[in-house]
Fold these 3 entries.
Entry 1:
Amino acid sequence: MKQSEKLDLILKGLYDYKDTGKYHSLIGVCNAINIPLALEEWNRLAHRLKDDGYVRTIFNYDDCMLQLTTYGIDYCEQDSYTYSGNAIITNTYNINVENSSNINIVSQSTDVKITLETKNEADKKIELLLKKLSELTEIDNDLKTDIFDCVKDIQNKLRQNEKVPKYSLKGLIDLTSKVASLSSLGVGIAQLFGA
């Protein structure tokens, strides 16, 4: 993921808290919206946002507390690092799935609606994933059990017409990314729910 996208996503995450008057952990914001950070990258990103005048900062040993300035709020509503001239708050960004190439998921999507068609498509993909999983013999039994449990949890939420938690979808992506033949199905299922 490009630095400009990370800066936009951090600002977008902070924008949600613009009226609280509180400082928020940079690493906490990044973890909440699944922004991958390299060691000590948080420091560079925090300094960039501070130097550009978009945030107030309190630096700690291993994190930085951030608060949007009025300039930061204006910037989020009018511009972005990644898409110049387009407001950060209306943009969508892609996050690379860890340990996989050429697979992206949409972060912070507001356009996803779960319809009967989406539910039926998810059911089909889940059944296919479970079938492929049962046919696999070369993977670790613990991993197989973890994937099975995660998929069954998602399937149960669907059957009960409950919202599928984001942590379940992230878990599905993380687990299936370890098995090449299942990774695209895992991401496909998660994408149906806007993960």
Entry 2:
Amino acid sequence: MKIHIAQHVLFEGSGAIAAWAESRQIELSMVRLFDGEQLPDRAALEGLIVLGGPMGIYDEENFPWLVKEKKQIRSAIDDGKPVLGICLGAQLIADVLDARVFQGPQKEIGWFNIERSIQHSTFSLPESCTVLHWHGDTFDLPKQAIALASSSVTPHQGFSFKDHVVALQFHLETTPESLEALIKHSADELAESGEWIQSPQQLRNGLHHISLLQPLLFQLLDNLFLAQN
């Protein structure tokens, strides 16, 4: 199986997804949408992962490739292909499923707790765990979607749709390298004041959570991209 990854900025890459793919002998194809690269034709797309990014789903004037990307995400969903969305990727999935995407009450940047909404066959979370958040926008739950998790700030932290689509507002794929890239390239956001914005040092202090989150990521990817094929 070949999985295409839609990348929106250079500093947000596949992270721990690459380690999963290598361990399962899965081919990953990074598609730099910001650099003019294109996702494959509809028939050739086997699986899709949509990464995060600092832009919003509504920033089509500044990032015109968002228009085509949304159509391709919708086509993949309609075709029953496995699709995973992370942060901006989750918001794009919510948008193409006709849910409202909007600015949240406050930015959520740091290692904060989420609570499981339901025990789901594709993505089995513990009742409570600490994950990395880095977002200002959020979304309503699309029709026919199943809520997966929530946090104190964000009622909808993730959802599944028809068992072959998972959208997560948070980052299970974080590695020490990917976190440093976010800190470096998003320093302006960290300089903002807010109850739910951690400092660079607080972010680095949370890296020990990775050892618990990576198995969750691997299980999700196994269930979504391998168990259904």
Entry 3:
Amino acid sequence: MVDSIVIGYIDEVLPSYQISLPLVGESDKAIYEKNKALGFDQKDEFIQRKLKVEKLVAGAPVNDEVILSLNAMFKDIEPQFKTGMKILIALEKGNYMHEGKYFFSRYGTYYIVEENYVLPAYEKVDYDSKKLTGASLDQLITTIQSVRED
């Protein structure tokens, strides 16, 4: 489940940032030590976009502007947001090193076209995506609100 579903538009491309992710298991630690000995710096890069929120559809309230964050290794898989794009997007609140940022997936993202129609940001052809491709924004909002209990 996600924390919030909002409608907004991409306002700005922000600089990427790098962090060292925590080493969870013994294999992570062993790989880290080996890479460190070879001179590799193990940092993950995250790309960011500023989203101006126009409407909360479901879930926890969010600020008027939120920062979308995505691990750069998924940049060719997840939606390629450009400034000015209007979207409906499901957000998961970041924590720890990602405090104040929100994560997303193509499976909870819809492009809003011609002001009132939606196109899923994923290419998986199944019953739900066929049903919602080209649906009105109002239809999608009604569908979301019928399955969410907020």
